[in-house]
Design brief:
This protein is α/β, with parallel strands linked by helices and 294 residues long. Helix content is 31%, strand content 21%. It has a single domain, classed as Metallo-beta-lactamase, Chain A (4-Layer Sandwich), CATH 3.60.15.10. The strands form two sheets. Strands 1-2-3-4-5-6-7 form a seven-stranded mixed beta sheet, with helices on one face. The chain has a five-stranded mixed beta sheet with strand order 8-9-10-11-12. Strand 8 and strand 9 form a beta hairpin. The longest helix has 22 residues. The protein is globular.
């Protein structure tokens, strides 16, 4: 299992990546692994990884069609579609599209997937403006990263359950990283054992302005409420939008080597919350001690 030191290292790496994107003009492009193809793989029960090496997308298969959670980067659209079809799921069988939050590296390909599958799309009200206007919202140090606008078919609220066939997903609003950041949970059957799976929306500061954020004035309060909320939750398996955050590819390799429980880590959520909360408080303290521009 990954220890807290490993999680802190992952936070440092993520911070360095975002620091290199101080503005849209200065950002030469995404890290190479964000568009590097990998073969899709089974995670647990009816959940499959269909993203790239560095950005996750999850396919959840039900008896009445499939659900796709996140569709990162426009450049990954064809890759995601090929991964879905390689699992024996025709694109027209994807009936429901969900997302974690309205950033280009998580919904950049969503408009294309919506068009190509004909599926309905559901997301939270907090991200609706960003999704339908095709741009991230909130003051930050990396500028605007645009994406094709995506029209919502349904606005989900906290605790709302969405069903497709025998699959039921619950929405948990966990704002901070974006105003509409949404984590999703479901129960799966893992070789006869019920497991709680949490698709965790990002809880990193990631260049967001924490003090004096004019377009998202409640960001600090939202982060703290989210840490408290997630700290009270339990999950046997935690999956993330950036696979390195929860060691998804490493866990897949461990399972290939014979560890059938590689993805099962009931303490991971608590470790992630503790590490990210500490990082947030450090960033907030530094922001408060830095003179604000008028």
């Amino acid at each position: 299992m990954m220890q807290k030191q490993g999680i802190r290292r992952r936070l440092q790496v993520a911070a360095l990546v975002l620091a290199g994107a101080a503005s849209a003009a200065a950002w030469a492009g995404p890290p190479a692994d964000w568009t590097t193809p990998i073969k899709p793989f089974h995670i647990v029960d009816n959940i499959y990884y269909v993203g790239s090496e560095g950005l996750a997308a999850y396919l959840i298969v039900s008896e009445q069609g499939a659900i796709l959670l996140d569709a990162p980067l426009a450049a990954n659209a064809d890759q995601i579609e090929r991964n879905i079809e390689s699992l024996g799921v025709p694109l027209h069988d994807v009936r429901l599209l969900l997302s974690s939050h309205a950033h280009a590296d998580h919904v950049g390909a969503m408009a294309a997937l919506k068009r190509d599958t004909g599926a309905r799309y559901a997301a939270s009200a907090g991200d609706r403006w960003a999704l339908e206007n095709g741009r991230n919202q909130g003051d930050n140090n990396y500028g605007i990263q645009p994406f094709d606008p995506i029209k919502l078919d349904e606005v989900v609220s906290d605790g709302q359950k969405l069903r497709l066939g025998d699959v039921e997903l619950t929405a948990h609003l966990t704002p901070g990283h974006t105003a509409g950041c949404t984590s999703w949970s479901m129960t799966v059957n893992d070789r006869g054992t019920p497991r709680e799976v949490l698709f965790l929306c990002s809880i990193t500061v990631a260049g967001n302005t924490l003090v004096g954020n004019r377009s998202y004035p409640t960001i600090a309060e939202d982060f703290r409420a989210t840490f408290a909320k997630l700290g009270a939750m339990q999950a046997d398996i935690v999956l993330s939008g950036h696979p390195d955050t929860t060691g998804i590819l490493e866990r897949q390799a461990q399972r290939a080597d014979g560890d059938e429980d590689a993805f099962v880590d009931p303490d991971l959520l608590a470790r992630l919350v503790d590490a990210h909360k500490e990082s947030f408080e450090d960033a907030l303290s530094k922001a408060r001690s830095t003179p604000q521009r008028p």
